[in-house]
């Protein structure tokens, strides 16, 4: 693609908005794009609903909430929306994440591709602190699988994990597909075992080809959703069944 420059003021402004305290509205380009896409041209964006503000309300009355991170902060908000009508939570997952790093003058320093690839199963990371949301009547969760570009600034103010580099913005680079979960039973596609078949965290991890700690999180959420249950132990391992 070659080296390209961006407006330094724009990037710095984005970085400052991301560093503001909790309670100040922060919106990435990714969030904004999905908000308007799902709200639709005839819907209303940023609408007050009781004590909360909905990202959007479609012309058919469905509430739209875009959440790029954990669903934990949504628990009270979604319950209030659901008391008034149907709710759709949009959750983007980066199939591929490209990282662009700029200096404080807006010059592109380098561009690289993250080795981490996202997939549908990542929805459980978002649900980990809010496993009850799919059980609320009228709540639909839609996963958006996309390529995402993350713009960063080498300004010395970011996380120590990123060696002081700040995240300025996230953008939707390419759309792959979406998957809709309208009811709890839809999540059974993540349980590759027959009804009443017994399995453990380890056997689930082997069957799905994932790491044990990831399998443990998924089974925790599925248990809270009452799609699987613990029926005892074998040695020191919990045994589950559908």
Word description of this protein:
- The structure is a single chain.
- With 242 residues, the protein is α+β, with helices and mostly antiparallel strands.
- It has six helices and ten strands.
- Strands 1, 2, 3, 4, 5, 6 and 7 form a seven-stranded mixed sheet that branches.
- A hairpin with a 2-residue loop joins strand 1 (44-49) and strand 2 (52-57).
- The longest helix has 13 residues, at 212-224.
- The protein is globular.
- Residues 1-9 and 11-24 have low confidence and may be disordered.
Short overview:
This protein is of the alpha+beta class. The protein contains six helices and ten strands, in the order H-H-E-E-E-H-E-E-H-E-E-E-H-H-E-E. Strands 1, 2, 3, 4, 5, 6 and 7 form a seven-stranded mixed beta sheet that branches. Strands 8-10-9 form a three-stranded antiparallel beta sheet.
